[in-house]
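re: that chain from earlier
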Amino acid sequence: MITEVIMPKLGQTMEEGAIVEWVKKEDEQVNRGDLLFTVESDKAVLEVEATARGFLRKILVPEGQTVPVLTPVALISRKADEDISSYDLAPAPSAAPTTDAEESTGVDAPASDSPKAVSPAGRLFASPRARKTAREHAIDLALLTGSGPNGRIVEQDVLAYAATKPEAVPRLKATPMALKAAGALGVDLAAVTATGAGGRITKADVEATVPPTVTMPAPAPGAAPSAGSVPMSGLRRIIAERMAASDTATARVTLVTEADATSFVEAREQLKASVSEAWGFAPGYNDLLGVIVVRALIEFPYMNARLTGDQAIEQLPYVNLGMAVDTDRGLLVPVVRNADQKGLHALGAEFRSLVERARIGRSLPDDLSGGTFTITNLGMYDVDAFTPIINLPEAAILGVGRILPKAVVYEGEIVSRQMWTLSLTFDHRWVDGAPAARFLQRVKQIIENTFMLLS
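^ sequence. v structure.
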């Protein structure tokens, strides 16, 4: 008996994964629950366990290769000498998750133009089968009106639109990875020679059509030589795409204020001295600020909102607080879910657990998604103020600078106070300047009067 090991879907947003390491080797015995391999998604490195016992007879996807979810990556046989020669040892050309009885062995691509991106923001409501049919006929889903529940685009809508086109579009078979590569590289699939199983065009076929990089001439005398280039891939590519999407899709405005954090710093020192031993950690500035921001979000719910796919403003009944973290793999935003129901101790403990997993690349699928508001702190790098990018689909993000002793006028005298710069970036499409300023003012008030957290 042969069991396929597939690339699992380890989160709602995961579409593909890269094999980082095969822990088990070919012909090695495995049991259910044994660690088989580690996989890198767009957010974290996760472990995959065996779901069957037997022997790892064949690894279909080597380390370093990226494939869609549900793609077979290895074979496990019940017996060590079981014949697997009849099994197609080439990995499945497509494993995109499908419904509506779709097959997961590949999709067809138009032969005329490069595949057109379907809804760059990914917010169109359409069934998987409708999306597949739209790709086959080179139809932009943004042109269609859905007839399904709540305006959802279904396959019949796509077929009806295709029937109005003057002529049918010839089709070439291609894997989803090939479609994606062709769109990114601007390659016409009609000019690509297919070498994949069943005559399908693979990603390698697409990349083979791209001419080699032209060697640049030596720099002119006095010009600084290039230090080389690093391909943008993995998490860095995902971060770049999301930052660009946020920059182009939002009407960003940043408000900057300075708060007197003297009482805030004193409160943190007192908490540190009194609860660190009992809690097992010393409460930090981010923990206290997180509680303050959650309090302000409850009072000003229009800041705890997101824009839905049909351009409606949805105010959320819960607060999922994101806290940006710098890791070796890039910027990640662990999310403390239901932060409005947690006190300082619970929020701080959960935040530390999330950060630890993020920094070692072991975040769980839901650790890094579902946020409703984000805090990003660059104070430890001697930064005072900056303009953070909104973490879509959230409405705003709070940038935090360093706490710095300054000479200020306080109660009629020039004294040294601990001053803190806060930068609130918000989307002006659904929050106006004055309401956003009231929210930031409230955060400042609680920082300056930390005892208000007890009220």
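The two ends are 66 Å apart (CA to CA).
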